[in-house]
Polysaccharide biosynthesis protein (Lysobacter arvi), 255 residues
Amino acid sequence: MSALPSEAAFETQTDQATARDASPEPDLRPAITRTAGVELLTPTQLEDRAIIHRGGVSRPEVDAFRELRTRLLAAVEGSFVALVAPVSSGSGGSFVARNLATAMAFDETKSALLVDCDVRHPSQARTMKIDADNGGLVEYLENAEADLSDVIYETGVNGLRLIPAGTTREIGAEYFSSVRMRLLLDSIRSRHPNCYVFLDGPPVRGTPDARILADIADVVILVAGYGRDTAATIAQAAANFDPAKFAGVVFNEGV
């Protein structure tokens, strides 16, 4: 698993999370609280899934994600919904989203929910080796009778759950702008205040999906491929987001 470069940059800007109204969704607390009775992944299994883990020896990539977590917590009051969006395909946005959520779950007082929102090219369930037998985000949003708890999966990481993207779709804008998508996030906010949600977004360049997801997020983190994305393309990508929500840029290397 490749580490973030030591010079990875993350500039924060205070943005207080907006309070949301409670929604009529069922109680999700059993689905997203910390693991009980579930077999946790070993360090070897975690590395095979490109997931950071704590150990007796300081690891640069773990320290980098802990620092990102600390800065986010300092910048946003209370739990939040964070969009992690890569500048372009191959920048490593999914790697950063997965491990930032994992770092949040290191804190035993918190839990994290990772939502794969790249419906064109989903990767989280495959990378984390999760059999999404009940479908994922797409199936939940398409079926008004679907139960959200059915598409929240254990990851083998204590405190971390995943909603996979589900069936591949070419267009995500209609899903992300739907009332049902907002209700999904409102339900989690209202019923589990210590859960931090990380939206693994599609690349900013080429589709409007990341911009639409930013509207329902409290904070936006842009991921640039170290040595891949130019200063001009990074600036163009950042211009798509509300400056009040924009936390900064993570430079990712090799993933």
Remarks:
- Residues 140 and 147 are 7 Å apart (CA to CA).
